Amino acid sequence: MSWAATRSTTRVEDKAYCLMGLFGINMPMIYGEGEAAFQRLQKEIMGITNQSSGLRLLAVGSRPLTIETFSPQEAPSYAILSHTWSVSEVSFQDILVGKAPDRRGYQKIKSCCEQAARDGYKYLWVDTCCIDKTSSAELQEAICSMYKWYKNAGVCYTYLEDYDGSSPLSQLSSCKWFKRGWTLQELIAPAIVKFYDLKWEKIGSKDNLCQQISDITGIDPDVLRGADPTKLTVAERMSWASERLTSRIEDVAYSLMGLFNVFMPMLYGEGNRAFIRLQEEIMKQSEDYTIFAWKSRGSDSLRRGLLAHSPSEFETSSRSQAMIQDTVQVISEYKTPDQQLCVPAALTSRGLLIGLPLLRQDVVGNEVPQPYALATTRFDFKRLRGTYLTPGDDAFLRSSKYLALICRSGARNSRNSSILCIWLRKDPESGIFTRLWPGSVALLPEKRASEFKLHTIYVLPSGTEG
C-alpha cells in the first residue's frame, strides 16, 4: 500500500481498482461509488488474509512492516513483546494498508524489531498487530493460544514505558505493567524475559531480578525460575492475579485461562459470569479444593455460593503482606482417582454436588469462638489427602451450620500446621448449603481433622443471598 501512497489517478475509484492485480483481488468495478471503492478493496484483502490461520509474525527487517503467517508446525524462532497498551496502537489493518508509521505505538514496535534483530531474530510477535481483532474467531483462537505463544518464544521483551532506567529498582513496583491482568501470563510463560525502560535501555532479566519481581507480584521464585506453576494450588495461583486489572471485566477470567490450562468460549458482555465459568472449568480438571479458600471484601452478613466473585478475593490466600521474606515452600499434594473418597464435584440443576468433610457448629468447641479473618497472615496451602476421613450419616445433616474442611494451611513464619475451614449453612427448606460468613475462614489444629466426616451435599455454586 505504501508504494501507491504518492500516486494519483484521474478517477477516485481507480485508486482502488488499479491495486487489484497487486493484491490478487477480483471485485466488481462500480464507478460512482467514490471512496467506498478503497474500503471494499481493504475488506477483500482482509478476507483473503483471514483465510490463513496460524501464527502471524512481523518480519523484523521489513520496511514497511509486513506480516507473514506460519502454521504451528512450521513457525520459525521468534521474539515476542510484552507491554501495556496505550492510545493509537498499531493494528493488523494498519500493517495491511501501510498506516503503521502514523500510529503512536509504531516507535515501540520499531525499537522492539531493532532489538530483536540485534539478538539474531528475524520475526517478532506483537499482540496489537499480529491478531486480526475484527475476526471474533481469530481473536478467540489467539487468546486460547497466547500462553503457548509466549512460552514458545525464544525471548520476551518487556517494555516498561513508565520506568526510567536511572531510577532505583525499588520503583519498579510502581510500573503499571505489574498491575495488568494480561501481563501475568506474559511474565510466567516465557523462559527468558528481558526488561527495558522507556528509552529501550536494558534493566535486567527475569532471572537476575527474580527476588524483586517475586516481592512485587507474590509469585513463587521457583515459578519465576521455570518451575511448573500447575504444581502450586489454585488458591496461590489466583492470588497472583488478585491485584491486577483489565480494561474489560471479562478479561479478568480470560487472561487466566492459560495459567490454569483451561479453554472456554469468550462471551464479551457476560460480565462477572466469566470468572464463575473459569472456576467451573478449573473444577472439571482438578479436585484442588483450595479454590474455595477465598475471603470476600463485602458484607459478612450475606450468604454466598462456594465460588469467588473475582481473583481479588484470593488476595489473602497466600499474599497479604507482600514484603515478607522467607524460604519456606509448600508443594500441593494431588490425589490420583483411586485415592479419592467420593466422586468429583459436578454442577447440577440443584447446585454443586460435592463431597466435603463437615463438622457441626455445636461440636466445634472453644478453640475457634469466632470466624477467623485472613487479614494479616501469609499462608501456604496444601491439598487435603483425606485418607483418614470416613463417610458421615444422614442424621448428621439435620443441623443448620457446619464447618467444611478445605485444606491444610501453614503460616510461612510458623512451622505449625492447621486445617483451614469455611462456614456453611443448610437451608431448612431446600436442603441446599450456602457459604456463611464469606469474609472469614476458621482455623483449627490439624489434630482435629479426624473429627470431620465426609458428606455429599448440594451447595449454591455462585450468587449472593441476604
The helix-and-strand class reads alpha+beta
The N- to C-terminal Cα distance equals 61 Å
Rg from alpha-carbon coordinates: 27 Å
Task: Say how many strands there are.
Answer: 18
Shape, per Cα inertia axes: elongated
Mean pLDDT: 84
Query: How many helices does DSSP assign?
Result: 14
Note the quaternary state here: single chain
Largest sheet: 9 strands, mixed
Proportion of helical residues = 10-25%
What share of the residues does DSSP label as strand, in percent? 15-25%
Count the domains.
3
- Uncertain parts: 317-339, 368-379
Q: How is the topology of this model organized?
A:
Layout: H1 14-17, H2 20-23, H3 36-50, E1 55-59, E2 67-70, E3 79-82, H4 92-97, H5 106-118, E4 123-125, H6 136-152, E5 155-159, H7 183-188, E6 193-196, E7 202-205, H8 210-217, H9 221-224, H10 234-240, H11 251-254, H12 257-260, H13 273-285, E8 303-304, H14 315-318, E9 346-348, E10 351-360, E11 379-382, E12 390-391, E13 401-411, E14 418-426, E15 433-436, E16 442-445, E17 453-459, E18 464-465
